[in-house]
Amino acid sequence: MLCSLLTLLRRGLSLVLEYNEQHPDAPMEGTHLTRFVQRWCVHACVWGLGGAMPWKGRESIAAQMLQHPQLSSLVAGSGGGGLTGGVPSAVDLRVRVEDGEWEPWSLGVPTKELEARQVTGSDAVIPTTDTLRHEEAIRACLAAHKPLVLCGPPGSGKTMTLTAVLSNMPELVLVPLNFSSTTTPDLLLKTFAQYCEVVKSPRGLVMQPLPALGEGKWLVVFCDEVNLAAEDKYGTVKVVSFLRQLAEQQGFYRCGKSAGGSGGASSSGGGGGGLNQWISLRRVQIVGACNPPTDAGRVAMSPRFLRHAPLVLVDYPPPSSLAQIYGAFVRATMKVHGGDLLPYVGPVTDAMIDFYGRNQQQFTTDAAPQYVYSPRELSRWVRALFEALAPLDAPPSPDELCCLWAHEGLRLFHDRLMDPHEKAWCNATINAVAERHFPGLSSTDVSGVVLARPLLYSTWLGPTTGECNGTVCGGTWGRACKRFTKKNWTATWSCLTKFWTTCCALIPCCGTPWATCCW
């Protein structure tokens, strides 16, 4: 925590120096400097000491900071009545370098309009107050060239937030790595060999990014799922220990007879009599992302490594941020039919977030491991709606849009449920949400008329996604299966037999006959 606090304080000092360089005639001094330092100290303590905490913990730190006698004057109003902009906590305020005053983060959120083709992509980032706050904390660590670990549940936007920060820092080059339970330090060494070169210096051998990446560029090695690597029999995660050595010693030993001018970074080779040579790292930074250690398959990272790496918790966005993010995606989806469907942007967005929030509260992983609900479900929902609406020649009616929305929602949320009472709850909830949010339906009896079950949509019977009859779909499927003759089944079984026999020959197993082992 102290490392994170010092990093953020250095970030504030660098902002002051940058301002003075850009304004030599009116540098930051006097009252301006005092206002900035006081407010930046609150910001640094909130994110330095509470970066790994949820929002409530950060708000508690901010409230305790403002109770200090020397900082109580920051609370505006008579008798300390409130903060700037009427926000509930100092966490919702950013420090303006121009005058040292506070302003709400919400004022700095730009409005972004998406094109319809961007709905199915994965590179669109919708800025919100949460992303701006996280980006400021991440940017401070990247600017100080300190190791950094982003922790959060799956689908909370860790990778997206880091990518957004790096896109605004051209002096950094991102190299993503995906960790698994079998990851070893060799993965990092091979990455260094691909993107770095070893040069001689007065202080010995130095490994630095290749000149082809750009003059003076820093290499940011992004270790995704860093806590998936398994422990050895001594309880040590080798790759995490190697990351700790890189952060602590800024280098590693390489085996080999000679390393002069070589770009390799292999940990093997050298043969008998080879000397271990120390390779110092230059302009190489480590950034990691992980899920909480309580999740299945995760291994708690060593405190010896975390003391070098500030930890920032990236939690799920609140409903207000979800509405901002997926409102932009839904608007882009409705644009495929011009302005006919734009009046339904708000109802569809609110209905999706409402139904998602109710399922997230009702079902947890304590009941079943597949009951994981993240904003990725909303992303899949929007993409499914886009793929269904885009090929249509005419915009759907309100009833048809509601049915299509409910069909895709049930496919994502209902189909993973196990118990009949859970499925009944999901059906009743989606009926209630549709009745609450969708205007202009043909009947007030949503469950019995508009969303009468079963809701079946398919592309089997036509070129576009359309509602279909269960009997017709069953007949089409039956005729397709009949065309898959006995000869096809025999050929498929023969291929499976050969495949399994080959696998058993390559991979030692228990020796059980393949059919018995398979079943």
In short:
This protein has 17 helices and 13 strands. It has helices spanning 2-22, 31-50, 55-66, 129-143, 158-167, 185-195, 238-249, 303-306, 319-334, 345-362, 375-389, 398-414, 420-437, 446-450, 470-483, 486-506, 514-518; strands at residues 93-95, 102-104, 148-151, 172-178, 196-201, 204-209, 218-224, 251-256, 275-281, 284-290, 311-313, 457-458, 466-467.
Give a quick set of tags describing it.
globular; Rossmann fold; 45% helix; alpha/beta; 519 residues; Histone Acetyltransferase, Chain A; 17 helices; 4 domains; Cyclin A, domain 1; five-stranded parallel beta sheet
Characterization of this structure:
Mean pLDDT is 85; it is low at 258-273 and 506-519. This protein has 4 domains: 2-108, Cyclin A, domain 1 (Orthogonal Bundle); 139-313, P-loop containing nucleotide triphosphate hydrolases (Rossmann fold); 319-452, Histone Acetyltransferase, Chain A (Up-down Bundle); 486-518. It contains 17 helices and 13 strands. Helix 9 (319-334) runs parallel beside helix 11. The longest helix has 21 residues, at 2-22. It has a 5-stranded parallel β-sheet with strand order 4-7-10-3-11, with helices on both faces. A 4-stranded mixed β-sheet has the order 5-6-9-8. It has a two-stranded antiparallel sheet with strand order 1-2. The chain is of the alpha/beta class.
